[in-house]
Each structure stands twice: as structure tokens, then as C-alpha cells.
Specification:
single chain, mainly alpha, 1% strand
């Protein structure tokens, strides 16, 4: 049997695991918990929270990546119901990283965050997250499959937009494809939500918000990642969707509806 916090004097507060149960064996829970920094090696009382938040996020990226693989397979088989379900799962899983970032925002004062950051190894940057990097590549593959599906059905994004309107009574297959498109928006919007919330955390903990002061801070005065990259890298990523052509289509549809009036809008 293993203990996460063996130096805890109160035996009832010790976290014990690796009891050889079928539950632990099936989930490989012992191996998963072994990844956590042992209690005696924590550099701060919030060190474990920081690690847990990032590990949960990485596990969520794995689940999202799996959902995107299922989506790609469903599109290849023209299984539009399966594609929609995969996107729903991906969007639900994408809520976990959002919750994790908000947990840090709500739990860690800036001073605590800065203390932890100073204790971590040089170069330990979230920009190197394998899950986030893999998801961007998977997005390219999924979009290619989606476009192939549209071509196989002989339809365009404009056709799907029209089929998504309330009261559509046309071809049911077209309505299913339109539903796939809508779920792609929802999934990508949830990923963009995480990026925006994460950027907000960085601005709160490290500073560098571009709207502070009379003039934007010089590049050399703005925060940098643990491997020295400027915060502007993160700001660019925060608005980069997985499916850019999908959002470009939204702009095009708006321009048509506005009679070519550009991107101007009228406040309500």
C-alpha cells in the first residue's frame, strides 16, 4: 500500500492507495496517482492543486482527441448521427479545462501563483502541452474529412446554413449535416472559451493586459512564458479557432445578410 502524504501525523488524514483492488487495477489508478508529487516534496501548500489542474486538463485533451478521432471515423462512414454525438462529447469534455482554469483563478492569489512559478523548472511552459498541440493538428484532419463529406453530398456551407434555419422541411440528410455543422461551432466555441479564460488568468497573474495605461506596454516590458516566449504568442492563440473556415463562413453570411455593409453592426 502507498501513501500520498506519509508524514501526515493524523492517520485518518493520510491518503492511502495501491490496495490491489480490481477498481484500481482496471483504471491503472496506482500508476496515475504515482505521477503526483509526493507530499514530502511539495514546494508549496498549493503545489498539488497546480499539478492536479494541469494533469486533469491534459487528461481532458486526451478525451477530446479521442472524440475527434471518433468524429473523423464517423464522417468517413457518413455516420452523421455518430459525428454529432462525438462533437457533443468533445464539447462536454472541453468544459473541464475551463473549470480547471477558473479553479486556479478563484483559488490562487497572485503572490501565491508567482511564488509557485519561481519554484518550477526553467522552460516548464504550458505552450508545450502535448494535448493542446495535438488538438490543433486533429482539427485540421477533421476539417478535411468534413469538407470531403460535404463534397460527397454535393452541398456547401451555405446549403447547411439554410438547412439549419427553423422550419426547414427539406431533405432530412441535409438537416443532419447542418446539425453536424452547428455542433462543430459549439465544440470550437468551447475550445475558444478555454483559450480566453486561460488568457485572462495570465493577465491576472502576470499582468501585461494590452488595454492598461495610456499606451500599450513595450514588447520587452510584457510578461513572457517559462521558456521566454512573449505573451503576444498566447494572445494570438487565444483567438485562433480549430476550424477557421467555419468562422469565416459566419462572416460571409453576415455580409450577405447586411447587404454588403461590411462588418458594421447596429447596437440595440
Amino acid at each position: 500500500m502507498e501513501t500520498l502524504n506519509p508524514s501526515q501525523p493524523n492517520a485518518r488524514l493520510r491518503y492511502e492507495y495501491d490496495r490491489g483492488t480490481g477498481y484500481e487495477t482496471e483504471l491503472r489508478l496506482t500508476e496515475a496517482l504515482a505521477a503526483l508529487v509526493p507530499g514530502d516534496e511539495l514546494v508549496h501548500q498549493d503545489h498539488r492543486l497546480f499539478q492536479l489542474v494541469h494533469l486533469i486538463t491534459e487528461y481532458a485533451w486526451v478525451g477530446i482527441h479521442d472524440a475527434m478521432c471518433i468524429l473523423d471515423t464517423a464522417l468517413a462512414k457518413d455516420d452523421l448521427v455518430g459525428a454529432t454525438r462525438a462533437l457533443s462529447r468533445g464539447a462536454a469534455l472541453a468544459g473541464l479545462p475551463v473549470t480547471c482554469v477558473r479553479l486556479l483563478t478563484d483559488s490562487l492569489p497572485q503572490e501565491t501563483f508567482l511564488q509557485l512559478r519561481a519554484m518550477f523548472a526553467e522552460g516548464a511552459s504550458g505552450l508545450d502541452s502535448p494535448g493542446a498541440r495535438g488538438m490543433r493538428k486533429a482539427g485540421l484532419a477533421v476539417w478535411d474529412s468534413f469538407e470531403s463529406t460535404l463534397a460527397a453530398h454535393g452541398v456547401s456551407l451555405d446549403d447547411l446554413a439554410e438547412a439549419s434555419a427553423s422550419g426547414f422541411t427539406g431533405e432530412p440528410r441535409l438537416a443532419l449535416l447542418a446539425d453536424v455543422m452547428l455542433h462543430m461551432y459549439r465544440f470550437d466555441a468551447r475550445i475558444l472559451e478555454w483559450k480566453q479564460v486561460h488568457l485572462g488568468l495570465v493577465w491576472q497573474m502576470l499582468g501585461g493586459h494590452p488595454a492598461t495605461g495610456d499606451t500599450p506596454p513595450a514588447a520587452e516590458d510584457r510578461p513572457r512564458s517559462m521558456r521566454g516566449r512573449p505573451i503576444s504568442d498566447l494572445e494570438r492563440l487565444a483567438v485562433r479557432p480549430l476550424f477557421p473556415k467555419l468562422w469565416q463562413h459566419s462572416t460571409e453570411r453576415y455580409r450577405v445578410a447586411a447587404g454588403g455593409a461590411g462588418l458594421a453592426y447596429r447596437a440595440s
